[in-house]
Amino acid sequence: MSEYKSDLLRLLAERGHIHQLTDAEGLDKLACEGIVVAYNGYDATAPSLHIGNLASVMLLRRLQQAGHKPIALMGGGTTKVGDPSGKDESRKLLTQDAIASNIAGISQVFHRLLDFSDSPTGAVMVNNDEWLSTLGYIDLLRTVGPHFTVNRMLTFDSVKLRLEREQPLTFLEFNYMILQAYDFRELALRHGCRLQLGGSDQWGNIVNGIELTRRMNGIELFGLTTPLLTTADGAKMGKSVNGAVWLNEEMLPSYDFWQYWRNVDDRDVVRFLKLFTDLPLDEIARLEALQGSEINAAKVVLANEVTRLVRGEEAARAAETTAAATFAGGGLGQDLPTFEVGPDGIGIIDALIGLGFAASRGEAKRLIAGGGARLDGTAITDEAYHITLASGEAKLSSGKKKHGILRIA
């Protein structure tokens, strides 16, 4: 559909959130008639979500902004199985305690981005372990099994791609799509949920849930996916050269989080402003019109707005202040990563590793040889260079964009 009647689908379309819809006309009509309850699920495989997950969390935020009710489904049960989508190897099986700890960590971002009030559109958080862990194996086979054929299950990307790469797919993982389909049915029966949201790689799993619920209960459900997010250079969102860009402060300092957005490719700025901020579209259009080096001002706005949403106002302000002091003023911003050294100083290689600028001595040596290591703005080309901190601290840089503070313990 080129023109939607509901505020929900218009909002999602104009900000670039829609990739696929199972029944655009039916969902548009449903959203015009009243409050739509929708969910997205998150397995607890780590203590934090990363920016690759942020697009789907923003889907829930947009849903609520348009006057509908979001469900954040914690995968306490499905994490015990492991989603094979996009993976060449089986996930490590986690203990119950580890899963509970991870859920406590990943739930933080939802409380920043969603309103969990008692209003009709107030968000709710649910754990699928509540029903999945009580399922009897024989009962599940008899109840759900007849609605799935192995022939069709083998056609889904999560299975097919693993087999095409000749990577093993365990029987445990093969069951994942059944459990996710069962989740949608349970949420429809328990919470009146009519819509599942997710990334484009979840399309097959979403369709399974729609079909299972229709066959078992005669309830019409809907699915909507957001585009698989890649940067302008083709890299998958969620990763940087230094690893995952985590949403939680405990996993990644706010300054580094801010810097990720400040350093995005020029071609990505407008798209990211639409997807990951609440800035009005006319303001985004104004920023889109900036030319040349002025685009850096739009990147600062992007970094501030995303950091404010995910980390809070204080974190965004501190990160911008630190960046200004570090880059414009040549000073030492207080939010820069810090590594404490003894009074006798430290070797340049150990300092680079200590600040996380290099993962190994070999990598540190290559950085030095390439002229990328700078101490207080001066290039250090001798890998045997020993740093002494006469003034108590110094700024060590890796290239033009990564900086840290060496400080006497």
TrEMBL record:
GO terms for molecular function: ATP binding; RNA binding; tyrosine-tRNA ligase activity. ATP binds at K239. Its main location: cytoplasm. It comes from the Bacteria. GO terms for cellular component: cytosol. Pfam families: tRNA-synt_1b. PROSITE patterns: S4. SUPFAM superfamilies: Alpha-L RNA-binding motif, Nucleotidylyl transferase. GO terms for biological process: tyrosyl-tRNA aminoacylation. A motif ('HIGH' region) lies at residues 44-53. It is found in: Cytoplasm. It catalyses: tRNA(Tyr) + L-tyrosine + ATP = L-tyrosyl-tRNA(Tyr) + AMP + diphosphate + H(+). L-tyrosine binds at Y39, Y176, Q180. Its EC number is 6.1.1.1. Belongs to the class-I aminoacyl-tRNA synthetase family. TyrS type 1 subfamily. Homodimer. This is Tyrosine--tRNA ligase. It comes from Novosphingobium nitrogenifigens DSM 19370. The gene is tyrS.
